[in-house]
Write a structure and sequence with these properties.
four-stranded mixed beta sheet; alpha/beta; 16 strands; Purple Acid Phosphatase, chain A, domain 2; six-stranded mixed beta sheet
Length: 210
Amino acid sequence: MTTTWTGKASLALLGLALARHCLQLSACGLLPDPERVGVILAGDLYAELGKRGGLGDVRAVWRAFAPFRWVTGVAGNHDAFSEDLRDRAGIGRFRRRGHRVLDGDQVELDGLVVGGVSGIVGNPKKPNRRRLDAFAEALELASDAAQVLVLHEGPAVGGRTGNADLTALVSAAAPPLVICGHRHWAAPLAELPCGRQVLNVDARAVVLTT
């Protein structure tokens, strides 16, 4: 997720503006009341102008969605949850009422079981990365009995970019709906050969209704 200008000399994360905009849409009746809306975040809520990626504290974005019924999701590889960007335990310590960052675990929210794995496959010496075998273990724990699986890094599906190593893992273990980000897809929805759907929310907000 990219940054946006808020004034001549100040910058703010785009997620902050998105939270405000969603509240405005609710006030106008274009979205339901915030108390009836759950929010799922798929990571990479931090970015720097002038360079690709970076690493930064995204707790303010999560807090900006506090008016909504609940907020859950995963951390991207650019997301920190502490002022000390070297503090890799910040994800596990971030706990607020109605907020839950997932990383190899699950949460039940209004009867919906959501599992999630934060970060990407890669060098574990770098932030929010783990080896493929460790990612597979976390995915198994997150997906067991889950109805929705949230990943930051998603599988490669039907020619859409993704991690090919994750495709088989997700096909075997994932629930009916997988939400991911990290790599942008022009068309947000794809279907694995096994019939499971993958929804890519990189650089977009998607509203799901029942």
